[in-house]
Design a protein that fits this description.
HAD-like_hydrolase, single chain, metal ion binding, Rossmann fold, six-stranded parallel β-sheet, HAD family hydrolase, 6 strands, 2 domains
Length: about 220
C-alpha cells in the first residue's frame, strides 16, 4: 500500500451534483409536496429536496426537524430515480486527482443503488483501491465510524492520511477528530473552517499540496 492515503468524498468533491438534470427530480418534488405541504412552504420543500439530493438524509431530517417516518416516502421516490440518461462528468480538474500517487479510498453517503449508478456514469471506480458506500437507510455508521474502522484495518498513519471533501461538518470534522490531515474542497466560494488543516479549490491544488510535501 502507498505510504500516502487519500480518503475522498464523491458529491460536490469529484462532481457537481447541481449538474444532474433537475427534471429527473420532478416526481421527487411532487412526492415531497404531497407529504410535506402541510408543514412547509413550497420554497422550503424545494430546499429540502436540494439538500436530500446532496446530503446524508439524517442530517436533512435534523436540519428541518423532520421525523424519519415523514421523509421515508420521499426517500423511496429518490431511490427509484434513474440516472441512465443523465450526462455526468467529473470536475474538469479530475485528471490531477488521478495523477496523485496514493492509496485512494472513496467514502460516500447515499442510496447504494444511486451512488453506484453515479460511479458508473462518471467512470471513476477504477481510480480507487477501495469504495465504501454508506447507505443511511440500512446503516447507522457515521463517517467518523467508517474512518475509525479504516484506520484500525489499514493501520493508517495519521498525518499521511488525507481526508478530502466539501463538507466541514461531515468528513472534514471526522478526519480532524482522528488526527488525519484534512483538506476542505471549496470550489464556488471561499469558506474558512476551524476543523480543516488546508483549503483547496481544485484537485490541482490538492496535487500541489501533496507534491510539495508541506505536511
Amino acid at each position: 500500500m502507498q505510504d500516502q492515503v487519500i480518503i475522498c468524498d464523491l458529491d460536490n468533491t469529484i462532481f457537481d451534483t447541481s449538474s444532474i438534470d433537475p427534471e429527473l427530480f420532478a416526481s421527487l418534488l411532487h412526492k415531497a409536496t404531497d407529504y410535506l405541504s402541510g408543514r412547509f412552504t413550497a420554497e422550503i420543500i424545494l430546499s429540502i429536496i436540494q439538500d436530500i439530493v446532496s446530503n446524508p438524509f439524517d442530517r436533512v431530517c435534523e436540519k428541518y426537524g423532520l421525523p424519519k417516518s415523514m421523509i421515508l416516502p420521499v426517500l423511496d421516490e429518490l431511490n427509484g430515480i434513474s440516472l441512465e440518461h443523465s450526462a455526468m462528468v467529473p470536475y474538469e480538474d479530475y485528471a490531477a486527482f488521478r495523477a496523485i500517487p496514493a492509496y485512494k479510498i472513496l467514502v460516500t453517503t447515499g442510496f447504494k443503488r444511486l451512488q453506484e449508478e453515479k460511479l458508473r456514469k462518471l467512470h471513476i471506480s477504477q481510480d480507487f483501491d477501495r469504495i465504501i458506500i454508506n447507505d443511511p437507510v440500512y446503516a447507522n455508521s457515521s463517517k467518523l465510524d467508517i474512518f475509525r474502522e479504516l484506520s484500525r484495518e489499514l493501520d493508517l498513519k495519521d498525518r499521511k492520511t488525507y481526508v478530502v471533501g466539501d463538507d466541514p461538518a461531515s468528513e472534514i470534522k471526522a478526519g480532524r477528530e482522528l488526527g488525519f490531515t484534512t483538506v476542505l474542497m471549496v470550489r464556488k466560494e471561499y469558506l474558512s473552517n476551524p476543523y480543516t488543516d488546508y483549503i483547496v479549490s481544485s484537485f490541482e491544488g490538492l496535487k500541489d499540496l501533496l507534491r510539495d510535501n508541506i505536511i
